[in-house]
């Protein structure tokens, strides 16, 4: 009887480190998440924030998510994960929770966009808020893609 090595089902793909992070799905989504989230923050900050409670939440979610995602990206690039399976769970939980928070922020930003249509600086604020809404929904979609692709990996 031949000796049997580790089964193919138990062999897990290694977590990427270094530049391979940018070539591996779902980890390649981290940089676009950061860039789109930064655009959300910049565009909301450029408006005259007429609804501080709504847009304050949008700015909090976008800035916090950008910073945590940047730390996560740096930890993958520098190889802090040491190929531990716990990092996949952490990554999946973080991106799932952030997707929910970003979806709530995108809906609130869309509401702020609707309300900014009839203000004194109407056209400029409306255009900035519209762009912020677009990038907020795009960023939420990226976080959802990341969370599901980690889950199904």
TrEMBL record:
One of its GO terms (biological process) is myelination. The chain crosses the membrane at residues 27-51, 57-80, 92-112, 132-152. GO terms for molecular function: structural constituent of myelin sheath. Keywords: Membrane, Transmembrane, Transmembrane helix. InterPro entries: MAL, Marvel, MARVEL-CKLF_proteins. It is a multi-pass membrane protein. GO terms for cellular component: membrane. It is found in: Membrane. Residues 21-153 form the MARVEL domain. This is MALL protein. It comes from Lanius ludovicianus (Loggerhead shrike).
């Amino acid at each position: 009887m031949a000796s049997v090595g580790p089964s193919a089902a138990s062999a897990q793909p290694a977590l990427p480190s270094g530049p391979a992070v940018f070539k591996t799905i779902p980890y390649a989504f981290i940089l676009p998440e950061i860039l789109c989230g930064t655009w959300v923050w910049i565009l909301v900050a450029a408006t005259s924030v007429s609804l501080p409670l709504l847009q304050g939440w949008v700015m909090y979610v976008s800035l916090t998510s950008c910073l945590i995602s940047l730390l996560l990206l740096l930890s993958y690039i520098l190889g802090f994960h040491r190929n531990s399976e716990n990092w996949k769970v952490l990554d999946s939980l973080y991106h799932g929770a952030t997707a929910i928070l970003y979806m709530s922020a995108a809906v609130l930003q869309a509401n702020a966009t609707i309300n900014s249509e009839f203000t004194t600086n109407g056209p400029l604020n409306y255009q900035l808020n519209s762009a912020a809404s677009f990038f907020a929904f795009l960023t939420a979609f990226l976080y959802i893609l990341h969370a599901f692709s980690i889950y199904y990996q």
